[in-house]
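hey can u check if this looks right to u? its 630 residues, i copy pasted from the old doc so theres a chance i mangled smth
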Amino acid sequence: MMRSPITQIFCFLLFLPTLLSATGNPGRQEARIDQVYSQFGLSGKGAVVVMIDRGIDYTHPDFINANGETRLAYLFDLIDDSGANASNNSYGRGTIYTAADINVSLQAGTTLSTDRFGHGTATTSIACGNGSGVSGNEFRGVAYEATIISVKVTQDGFPAFGNQPGEAGAFDPGDIPVALQFVADKLEELGMPGVTLINLGSVGGPTDGTSTICRAMDDFVARGHTLVCGVGDDGGGDNFASGSVALGNSTEIQINKGTNGFLRFDMWYDESNRFSVEIERPNGQKLGPFAAPTGPNGFDDRNFTDIRYFHRGADVEFFGATSNRRELLIDFTGVAGVYKVILTATAVEGSGTFAATLNPATYSSSNRFLTNQVAGFNVNDYTTAASVISPGDYVVKNDWFDLAGNLQDITGQGEAGEIWIGSSVGPSHDGRLVTDFAAPGEVLFGAYSPDTWYSNFPSSLVQGGEGKYGIQNAVSAAAPLSTGVIALMLELKPDLTPAEIKDILHQTARQDNNTGSVPNNTWGYGKLDALAAVQAVNSLVPTADPNKDQARLKIFPNPTLGQLNFNLPASEASVQEMIVSNYLGEVVYKLNSIEIERGQFNLPAKMANGVYQLVAIGSGWRASSRFVKL
């Protein structure tokens, strides 16, 4: 399949920062996952974990059942279009492999699709690997008996190493909506509850929830499917700049380009405004000024070899956003030094504000804004979709023993209990809270395969892993751990909705001195607590016939803005008590006799938005129904 040159620009956005930061410690005890196993006996069985990432080495023992058959229901390789026209592929791109295809491959020793980088294999095993590569359960993933669907939407570029050839990077953002459509179709075909993780994304784009991909993500959730996307690995750097330019005035945005590699500047501003642009190289040579495009369909694209310049109206910017904003995208590939982007306002309605990002410009990079810097606002665009669950990453333990018995230690990125320095920080560019909670991701253990880029680093292979397990860190580790916890929640109560899951994770997150007052743009609602979340779900599991209980108590409207009506059949009219409780089982409101008699009451004005239960208790019976307060 032909990929357009403009689309290919965006592959840099993903895989260059990954080479810097994607290499991470057991968080099961920290998140109280082991206590979930001992108290509830959950394993993910009956739930589906979907990983949208860099593919998977399905031959790794973590993804094979004891009978030798694959744990994968499907593998969809969107990098390989050889099967785009196959009879089982209605999506017109990629290649689809079924469990039967994979089992034949396992028996024959052939390879259908793989993950030569290692990221997708490691992260899938954190979420749901069975740890069977070695004896014991030390390297077992969270939902270790879940069914797996793997979707490969990107591959990272890396040079040749050892006797292995290098690999070119590849990514087409248009594959993500296709991947989500495929996953929705297959989950509905399987008839099983599932949780999907998009385990990629970086700073840049509109970052306001209106891009084509964000809308596809919200559509996916609207079909009833839970979706996770980590906040990103772009925290700790001066990679966001903002300001205002008055009519006829100019502002100079200074950028330090620390190396000779690739650096992307991506700026957004309202369609009603017009900024002309000059660019100054480190040697003082200027390009421009270039006038702003005349309307929403206007564009000005230029190539100066070391600088590629794209100025686009709101209807032709690269992300398909619906927020009516223009995009100024500049790719710098020349020498290191200080570059200047000079904006002059030639038309202004309102404040004349702009919002700009740099990528890569992480905590470990010397790329950074020198002027107009604003802290935060560096979450990845995908995670600003309104209905997605967005974990951040914090430190639980920074050291490990490698395969040779040497102590390895990551320093300068946060101490135990603190947020990881690279965990992206909100809000979204339209001011919304993005982070839902933070999960332990520093450092975790994941599956490694031989002859991959990951296994090329001996210090990353962990003692006791026999070469089959190594470290994985960053948000790329915290997000799959969170995904595995959601799979356990769905095993216990398969009909949980995405909104209910998100609300439970908010209400059960724990706070400490590191999180401070919550919610906030770094920690969201606090630290992930798997045991508290599962206990909250367990409180919703009916002990009697759920259909009979639901028939007893009918409530409307649902969701409600504050007033709630309820009906009880005449046979159960003798009500002794009615209460409203939250997911922790705490009583937040008790109805008085007048409210019970008239079948209507108003929720307290100070009651937080979320999911609650209305419980009616009579002589020898109890009925409850869930409702959502908006």
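Residues 211 and 321 are 4 Å apart (CA to CA).
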